[in-house]
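Schema walk-through. Below, the input block comes first and the output block second. Nothing else is stored per chain. Lengths vary across the set, and this one has 166 residues.
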Amino acid sequence: MNAPIDASMNATPTAAPESRQSFVLVRIGERRFAAPANLVAELSPPVRLHRFPHTTSLVSGAIIRRGKIVPVCNASDIVGGRKSSANLFYLIADGSAAESGELVAIPVNGESELVAGEIRPAEQAAPGYICGSLLLGEEAIDVLDLRALAKALETNAESSRAEGQS
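--- output ---
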């Protein structure tokens, strides 16, 4: 006697909705964020941070990655959170994320994770560097607009330099 055939086994898989994207989950300070995976060049292990005299607290120094000098920006100052003394990795944003076209490193701590999901629109009161939210189980995670965050970092650095010159 033959077992009944499950029709779902022969069904062709449905295509994933176009709004489904990949994200890298990271922790900046005490908050958890999602970054679009297509704008993350790499997650770099801790390497030597080269410090130099400068007038802004938003840049903590630079790292050398794959033969390139990459500024390390303190995103926790922008996104509102305490700086963690345990920066375990650097999220290196793709050059297209910064207006200058250069790579930018953001210290992140804790575990990172690659997930897929659909982005929901940002709340009206959300800051400009948040482009939406990602629902994972019961948790809504803010999605960083890395271009807007890089621009906010550059703008704050320029205004800090201008204040230091006056």
